[in-house]
Amino acid sequence: MLRRPKPTDSEADILREQNQFLTSGAPSAASVVRHPVKRRGEAGKDGGHREESQKDVVTIEDLPDELPSLTPAPPKKSKATRVAFEDEDAEERLDTHDHHLTAVLSRIVERDTSSVPVSLPAFTGMAFPKVLHRSQTTGLMTLSSNGGRKSIFSRQFAAQRQKEAKTALTCSGEESQTPAAPAEKTLSCESNMETDQCEAAGDRPRLVSGQGLPGPNSTVETMRIHRENRANLQGMSQSEIVEEQKKLLSQLDPRLVEFVRSRTAQSFPLSASTSTTSGDKRSENDQSESSESKPLGVSTSAQKTQEVQMDEEDGQLSSSRPVTSKVLPVNPQKEWVHMDKVESEKLEWMSDLPAPRRKGTEKAMQARFDFAGTLIPPAEDLPTHLGLHHHGEEPERAGYSLQELFLLSRSQIIQQRCLALSTLANILSKARAGQYRSVLTGSVLSTLLDAGLLFLLRFALDDGVEGGMSAAVHALNALLVCSEDEECLDTTFSWFRGMVSFPLLPSAQDEEDDEDDPCTDEILKETAKEKEERKSDQEVATKDVVKGLFKMKLLPRLRYILEVVRPSPPVVEDILEILTRIARHSSSSATQLLDCPRLMGTVMTEFVPTSWTASSVFPPQSVYGLPLHSAVKLLRVLATSGRHACARVFNSLGARERLSCLLSAEPSELLLESSEAFRVTTEAYRLWAVATAYGQACQLFIDIYPALVRTLQSAHRLLSSSEPQLHLHTQRHLALLSLLTHVTHTAGCHQELEADMISSQGEECPPPPPVTWSHVTGLQALLLGHLKGFLKRLDAPAERDSSLAVIPAYLIYLEAYYHQLSRQRCFKPVETLQELELLTSEVLLPLMAHFAVKDLMKNLKSSSVVCNVESVHRDPESAPALPGLACSRWRTRPGLAVPDSPFPLLTGLGLLLETITRIHKGLCSKFSGLLLSEPVIGYLRSYSVASPTLSHSRAWLLRHEHHLLYLLLRLAHRLVYTLTVTTVPLEPKVALYASLYHQVALVLLSWLLPGSEFLAHELLSTTIFSKDFISEGHSGGPEAVELGELKLNEEPVNHTSPSLHTVGALLREACTELPSIRGCFLTHLAHLDSSVLSSRDSYLGRNPWVKSHLLPELSGPILPLDWPFLPLISLYERAGMADGGGRAVEELPHGALQAVTNCLQWLLLLEVWRGDALKVIPPVAKLARLSCIFLCSSDLFLERPVQRLTWGLFRLLTRTSCLDSLDLNVAPPGLASFEDLYLALLSQYEAVSLGDRLFGCWVLLPLQRRYSTTMRLAVFGEHVGTLRSLGVPLDQLSIPIERFTSPPEDSLPLLHLYFRALVTRTLKPSWCPVLYVVALSHINSFIFSQDAAAQEGETARCRMLRKIYYLTDECKLKLMDYKRPLCDGEFWETCSTAGRAFTLRTGDSNTDRRRKGGEEERRKGGRDLSSSGCSSSSCSISITVSA
Fold it and tell me: Where residue 183 falls among pLDDT bands split at 50, 70, 90?
């Protein structure tokens, strides 16, 4: 069955369905019917030739009888598309499409006028006809008999004849009351020979037309038949009419009935509307005439009633009743334009809508939105005047679905396109704000991107109408830009390293597998750029939206809109924000923005001018020629992408001159609106700060130094609570402080750069900046005075918030000043130490003790990104191809960037304390209160047990939290180290929390992000491997481990492997080797040296050496989560492992043994005392990494230090809690499966193990019953040779034997291998005692199992019993009498044959007696093994076991 086309079908789908329909040969649902035209007088077959002979026929030679089919004309083109040549003949060009006259003419046949009535106009006494006004046409007839349109003049004559006919009926008097009245009325109609008059009188046949009757009197014959039918109906009662009606319906074909009803429907609305219209405009004489002709009206109404009743009673025969004027929502009037023809299908939409359907909440319903993007509840009934109802799939529901908006956006009407695009923009804005998070399933943004929204908006940008273009720009802005994300980034700009950000690149995805591509070799030779160009727009946009826009040539189009179209101010703002978001994508995107021809030139010329005039109205009608803060922000983001881009902005684009114009005057003097002036100057300060962070644009500082000092002196206005623009003042002042901080750092590097230039001897080095230390040293006193003033005003509630907002920036500036001061030649240690003591006593200690700061510190845990999961919500609208920061509603929920967050203040304070304690170590003890405060300790405890997650929405905030944690750990290290060196006894609380600080350092090290390599290096060098923070090493920790693991109730046994109580000795050795362990790990992290140096320059304020303020791509933490195993993994990779198998290395690399030993010592220390730090590593990953000990060399595991440490780790990994969490069915990180690694272990064991029991335990561990059968099949199958050397005794295996034997094995292939190994003596207790017991247990359980088994299992069981019967060695007895071993060497013999238990002790004198007792017992009760569930229909065997 062919389906109907749907709105979602493409042109290809419709063409395919058309071909299927034509191929099937099915009849069409609609057919074209040509109704006969009365004026041509069609005749039947009999009279056709006779009428044709009476007509005049004009014949032309070679002229066809019918018109030929003409080829459709091509679509219209513009006039400029046709090119006419001088030598081209017009006649020849015409003949190319019209070869003969036959293309236009055919036979000319005269129209038949024999049956056309002739009516003469009525005579009047007027000389000229009365002028007809259009207002007088309301009472005239509108429609003709065939429903066509008629002129006003024709309708006037028809109305006049109708009036004459009514006058003739009135004059008949009493005769009109007789049944002959219809006949007289019909005769009057016949005399006038006008069908319209009969139709107006309401007495004409509706079904019989007379067509096909010969002769000119067909109309008279038709009326005679009609009168007979009327007479018959009037002579019948109502019940007789209904009965005859039912009889006809039962006899007639339903299709014929449907045809009759359709003819009735065509005439019924006409007569009803005509009577209604004429009744409204009827005169008094007409009313009297209608009263006299009342019997006719009654008869007509009775007939109509019968027809309606027939439709009601037999409505089940038709699927839908024809629409009449009574059910239409409006009755068309004659004076209505273009309503002379009733179109019921269209008028149906004007009827009242049904109530919205209420569906159950369990079933999801299609989301519908209003024009503002608000989600409309499914059951809400909105009024229709809102314009939200339309002819869609659910007309009773208000609103538009996403699919309907997509269709509307491709409309030919510009208003509809703009409305659809604006609605989509509102939906995107609300979706990014999180308003649909709780009411919609799925992501609106991802759904729209998958549906092709990006291509829709790109096509709409090419709209030639400015309105459609503006709507497309607004929608694209809503898709790409999140205003709250930008607001958060601007808020944190003045924080420590706040201008640094991650590129908003999608997460790295694995490249597609090109193995099946025949051109694989050529593809490998292609560069990344060539591969990108080879992909389609859809492929690129699916992975990265911004790259897809680049591929679709978005930048040239935006340049055209800005330069040529010159749109309104909102569109300009949207375009600049789009460009800013694109610049944040990556450094390459910023470079493409700068390289786009005339784009940045237009932005600089039009929106960052050097001179402008004040606008007469606010807001201005056009922003061209005026400075815009969004344009300056775009320059700032471009400058952040790299040193070279910043130089292009300041030198090539002329940003230096424009900053001088903007910052030399006060905001009130800029001839701009007040708020816009503050925003422009704020962004100008930020742009300048970014440039000075590279050591650039420092000459400008010297040029406008007086203006900067004047601005600093007016900072007291920030504290005025009555200031209407306090927030703008604060942001501007914070931007200025950031500028001064970076200028101070750059000036501090002047002497070093001068010395490098002198000693370089021609080598390339950065030039010294023009600003020197003497240019900035005078600012310290002024800013320190400001800080003291803000500290005093913390007591005023109205000024507290603004003071807390600016104090962190002052602290960061002071840290930069003292950090660079200590590196200058003019540094005076004594004066500086006194100055620091004064600063501590007057500023820092009062600040730390202030109640406002203490109250702020109580929010430490709630503002944390890691400790408080609710502080950062996962953005449900973030698409993988378009990452964001998820800052929606960031001011209304706790978070790190909210105004009441303590992180900026504590970070600035910790930064200053780090510098002060480095210069003046005697002040360390004064700041211990901060480190030991209750909010800080609680926060550190929560962080030490948290598990951070990494994403773009968390990474930019995690950086700032990592800064605070690092500074707290540095303060703790400084405090512990200083007190230790000076031989001053540690404060009890500091020693108490040393292990907590170490735990926090381990967790922080695993989650440091790219760009923080310097912090990781400092932690590894100072805190991680410091014995002062591993307090267990010198406070009885090893002894406590020995006592905890020692079992006093056990007798000492001579084991070849170290017992648990030897772990304490290994820990003592590890604590003494901590410096060597630190050197080992720093050596294996040497590949990060370049990143560490780059990060160091950024953190220490070495601005001239900084290359970019755009961090590396966020691909994960700096160090892998399994970094404690790094020396093992590195040695494994250097050993050259290939194809999953081991290769014997004859000689280890130099220092490999020491590196492995240090690594194992560190792992043992962490496993015992810092287990929480390793919980992020899955147990299967730990086992896989430790397996490298056996795979990287042929004899490394035989070295005594390695043996002892590995035995200790094996004992710890096989504890009950660890075994329960060990899941080998999960693939370890970096491996396809654990089975592949195990096969490599088996191959290496067969090659180089020499029966080593440590290696044997490692091979036996994965053979536990709950793990995959594949590994056990590998041991007993292709690696069966390992059974001869796997001689690990039961008492040395730290894994309970029940984990190997329970539950019983159910794999028949493995049971066959077990049985074969036992019967063929491949498996012996002296060779492999553990697996020998395992095989015996599973075979015994299988043979004597009482559980029902499949036919295959029963057959295998019987075959095993038959083979056991023919055995003659002791294997037969052991298979029948399985002995479960105990841990102390005893065996518990389960005699299945007698149902009793006998104890068998190896080497016991009572062994023979007990064995004989068992044999006698078996003789007495010889057992039928078939009764144990071993019988089957195919095999029945009875075995009696005897001695």
Answer: very low
For residue 880, the number of C-alpha atoms closer than 13 Å in the C-beta half-sphere is 7
- pLDDT computed for residue 1363 by the predictor: 87
Tokens of 1399: 């104890």
- The burial of 447, by beta-carbon neighbours within 10 Å (0-12 exposed, 13-18 middle, 19 or more buried), is given as middle
Residue 270: burial class (beta carbons within 10 Å; 0-12, 13-18, 19+): middle
Strand pairing report for 1396-1400 and 1387-1391: antiparallel
* pLDDT tens sequence across 567-593: 999 999 999 999 999 999 999 999 999
- Paired with 1397 in beta bridges are 1390
Cβ–Cβ < 8 Å for 500, 965: no
Residue 1202 CB: number of other CB atoms within 10 A?
Answer: 20
What pLDDT digit, counting tens, does each position of 438-477 carry?
Answer: 888 888 999 999 999 999 999 999 999 999 999 999 999 9
**Which pLDDT value is given to residue 949?**
80
* Residue at token pair 């067909």: 218
Each residue's pLDDT tens digit, 999-1048: 999 999 999 999 999 999 999 999 999 998 998 877 676 766 766 665 43
Cβ(498)–Cβ(492) below 8 Å: yes
Lowest average pLDDT, out of 31-45, 269-283, 517-531, 640-654, goes to 269-283
**b or e along 819-850 (b: 16 or more beta carbons within 10 Å of the residue's beta carbon)?**
bbbeebeeeeeeeeeebbeebbeebbbebbeb
β-strand partners of 400? 369
Contact 188, 169 (CB under 8 A): yes
Question: What's 790-841 look like in SS3?
Answer: HHHHHHCHHHHHHHHHHHHHHHHHHHHHHHHHCCCCCCCHHHHHHHHHHHHH
List, in sequence order, every beta strand (DSSP E) within 1099-1244: none
Which whole number is the average pLDDT over 320-338? 61
Taking the C-alpha atoms of residue 517 and residue 1429, their distance in angstroms, rounded to an integer, is: 58
3-state secondary structure 1089-1131: HHHHHHHHHHHCCCHHHCCCCECCCCCCCCCCCCHHHHHHHHH
Residue 277 has pLDDT above 60, yes or no: no
Cβ-in-10-Å burial (0-12, 13-18, 19+) of 934 comes to: exposed
| Structure-token pair, residue 1418 | 């078996």
Instruction: Looking at 364-482, list the stretches that DSSP marks H as alpha helix, in order from N- to C-terminal side.
Output: 402-408, 414-432, 444-450, 453-461, 466-480
Give the DSSP letter of residue 875.
-
Host H or E run for residue 738 = helix 726-748
pLDDT of residue 651: 94
The mean-pLDDT minimum among 126-140, 657-671, 834-848 falls in 126-140
> CA-CA distance, 587 to 600, in Å (whole number)?
16
Asked whether 1111 and 503 are in contact (CB, 8 A), the reply is yes
Scan for tokens 């993007």, then name that residue: 373
> Which is higher by pLDDT, 1369 or 1267?
1267
Closest C-alpha among 1052, 1034, 1256, 1041 to residue 1169: 1041
Q: Which helix (H) or strand (E) holds 539?
A: helix 537-543
Amino acid, res. 741: T
Q: Which of the pair, 1335 or 877, is modelled with greater confidence?
A: 1335
The answer on pLDDT for 61 being more than 90 is: no
The distance in angstroms from the start CA to the end CA of the chain is 80
CA distance 1362 to 1328: 26
Q: Tell me whether residue 35 is exposed, middle or buried, using C-beta atoms within 10 angstroms of its C-beta: 0 to 12, 13 to 18, 19 or more.
A: exposed
